[in-house]
Every structure is written in structure tokens, then in C-alpha cells.
Amino acid sequence: MTLTSFGPANRIKRSAETHPLTWRLRDDGEAVWLDEYQAKNGYAAARKAFADMAQDDIVQTVKDSGLKGRGGAGFPTGVKWGLMPKDESINIRYLLCNADEMEPNTWKDRMLMEQLPHLLIEGMLISARALKTYRGYIFLRGEYTTAAKHLNRAVEEAKAAGLLGKNILGSGFDFELFVHTGAGRYICGEETALINSLEGRRANPRSKPPFPAAVGVWGKPTCVNNVETLCNVPAIIADGVDWYKSLAREGSEDMGTKLMGFSGKVKNPGLWELPFGVTGRELFEDYAGGMRDGYKLKCWQPGGAGTGFLLPEHLDAQMYAGGIAKVGTRMGTGLAMAVDDSVNMVSLLRNMEEFFARESCGFCTPCRDGLPWSVKLLRAIENGEGQAGDIETLLGLVGFLGPGKTFCAHAPGAVEPLGSAIKYFRPEFEAGIAPTRAIVPPLAKPIVVGA
Q1: Which domain of life does the UniProt lineage start with (predicted)?
Q2: CATH topology of domain 345-430
Q3: Of 140, 266, 317, 334, whose CA is between 20 and 30 Å from 195?
């Protein structure tokens, strides 16, 4: 896994002033444990939050910073925190970290948990203090075995140092933190499905309202935030709102930095912490190094498998939610994928839709039946056995499974790349439609059952 800096070819080193998420990383890729983390100013923000800031002031600071969720939805974090009840008599509240990173082509949270586990713990500790939550869970993708090992060790280190458990930093505030590994379901990335799974139930999304802030884990107020989101909190508390906002490029409506990446047949696939507002072209050319020799960029996805395809001419779009929206899709997780000119789009989409169909929870009809239907049609087109009208049927499914038509956002995300692929590469789909077959004449003598 590659991590570079703001400048091309590593000409500028990571620093606390410019890279709040990654400046503490070791060059050898090993985890940063407690002693080294504290030597690099770790837990200083937590000490400041506990000693110098009222709980409501922490919430307001995060709200003023403009921090948004980094899991793909982009909901303002401070606004979500503000939904938690103010009633002091509600003494059981939960903080959940959504670490069920199963979006294909996304691995940013894995890097943070494996190499900077204490950054996540510090972010959760400050958040718990702000939200008055006494217990937290890191709901981790089951396949992330190294992350689980490192997080559990970091939790034990923090406990031994008095940074978790009872009377943290002499404040009278208690916070327990547990690492919970899931069973490997993509749908658990949806916050209410995650809650159901944590409770030992089937991982189906819940109806909203009520939202988790009112009725969450075991019926108690609950806040769910993504790994990267929580890892931004310590720097915001330590260095302030104005500094955090200044990190983004001019024109960006999103504040701070973002872990962005590029995969596919590029020369330098990797992951980088970059300011919001860099262009896709900078990410593709300056950091990923462009396409490997012998390959040409056909199209790209800006933020995981659930985002629409874009063409090379869209690379000048700025990488923030509004900038990507201007060219017709979503920022998503911010980890892009390059599709080279040797790839058949029908085969690529068939593979994607098979994944999304398999990962549907099966709760609502459009998703349960519509996604397998799309796979069946795509497989037929891929084999040259498509029928007239199949492309129109696929486009119909894109509409029927779009935003607001299903119980959660799983199906809309699944069909967004399908709709964009047909929009930009329809001839490849049309090539899989079989020639019209001759009509077979009726039998000269009808067969009568029982004759």
C-alpha cells in the first residue's frame, strides 16, 4: 500500500500542519503503538477536550469545522452529533464505529486501523466525551484480521494507561471500548443493519424514523460514525476550526483532507491523504502516474463500485461531493478505479451486479428481485444471447431501483454504475443482442392432449 504527500513524487513530506490523518505513519508500514503515538502528540487532543472543553463545545467545534462523514454518504458529522438527546437522565448511550469496509475497491479504513489504531481510539474517546456515551463498539469487517489484532492490542494499551475504562484522565467520565468482528456482510455498512447485527439479529436495515440517535442499539440513543470520520476529530480539537477549513482547496465545499486513491492498471496504485478540491487529473496523473505502458484509460469510477462511471474528459472535476456531482455521479469513498481499454463493460458490470445481488439483505422486492434480474440479462448479453428490449429493461431497472424506490441505499448504489455504463458505452451492450430469430411456423396438425 502506497502513501504519498501533497506534492508529486514525494517532494513534500507529510506534516502535522498538512496531513492530520497520516503524518504519524511509519515509513516501514508498521503500526504506531502507544509510546510512539504519544511521542507524536497523540492523546493531546483528548487531554485538551477533557480538561478545557465542555461537552457541548466539542460538538459545536466539530459542527463548525464542516467535517462530513467519510463513509460515502457525506452527512455533516456535527449535525448528526447534535441529534443525540440532551436529556441528562438518559444515562445509557452508545457510540458505534462503522468499520465494515466492504465497498469493492475501498481499503482506506483498513490502513488507518492497521497502522494508526490509537488515532481511531482517540477520536472515539473525544466523541464519546462529547456525546456522553459510556460504551463504544468498533464494528469491524470480519476479514480484517490484522486490523482486529492491532485494535485489540491498542485498546489494552489505552486501558493500561488510564485512557479507557473508569475515571478517564481524572474526569469522572467512564468509557469502555470493544472490538466486534462481523461475519462479512456488505449490508452491515448501512448503520441500522450494523445495529441489528451487533444485537445478534439478521442484518436488515431498519425503518427510519426513528433514527439511531433516538432508538439505536438495544433501544438506546446511538451515534454511528465511519473510521476515517472519527480519525479527523483529534486534529480538529487540537488545532481548531479555521486551520482545518484552510486545508481544503479553493472552490471545495467540503473541508479538510480526504484519503483518496487509485487502483486499476495505473503505474502507481495507492492511497494518499489529499485536500478536498484536488482534481481527478491530479490524482490520476501526479499520484497514480497515469496508465501503465500499453494501456489507455477508458473510464473511471471516483469512489468505489457504487459510483457511476466517468470518462477521461471528466478528470478535471474537483474531488469533493459537489465537484463530482457536477459531472453526474457521487464522491463515494474517494478511492477511484481506472478501467483500461481492454475491459468489456458488459463483463465488468455483470461481475459488479453479481456482487451487489449476492449482498442484498433480501428485505425489499425491488432489490431482492431486481438485482438478480439485472445479472441474468447482463449474463445473456455477455454471451451474445441478449434479446431485443433487454437494454431498455436494464434501464428500467435502473429507474425502479433508484433513490427513494427501495428500503435502503443498497440498490440505488448498485445500479448507478449500470446506468452510467449504458449511457457511455451502449454499443458494447448492443453488440450482445442476438440477431432476430426466424419465427417458427405453427404445427400443421395441432396436438390435442388426451387424444
Answers
A1: Bacteria
A2: de novo design (two linked rop proteins) (1.20.1440)
A3: 334
Bond preceding residue 20 cis, omega within 30 of 0 = no
**What is the DSSP pairing of strand 335-340 with strand 297-301?**
antiparallel
Q: How far apart are CA 242 and CA 258, in angstroms?
A: 17
Q: For every one of its 451 residues, what pLDDT tens digit does the chain have, with 9 covering 90 and above? A: 445 444 444 444 788 899 999 999 999 999 999 999 999 999 999 999 999 999 999 999 999 999 999 987 888 999 999 999 987 777 899 999 999 998 888 999 999 999 999 999 999 999 999 999 999 999 999 899 999 999 999 999 999 999 999 999 999 999 999 999 988 788 988 999 999 999 999 999 999 899 999 999 999 999 999 999 999 999 999 999 999 999 999 999 999 999 999 999 999 999 999 999 999 999 999 999 999 999 999 999 999 999 999 999 999 999 999 999 999 999 999 999 999 999 999 999 999 999 999 999 989 999 999 999 999 999 999 999 999 999 999 999 999 999 989 999 999 999 999 999 999 999 999 999 988 544 445 544 544 544 4
Q: Which helix (H) or strand (E) holds 429?
A: helix 410-430
CATH number of 21-245: 3.40.50.11540, 3.50.50.60, 3.40.50.300, 3.40.830.10? Answer: 3.40.50.11540
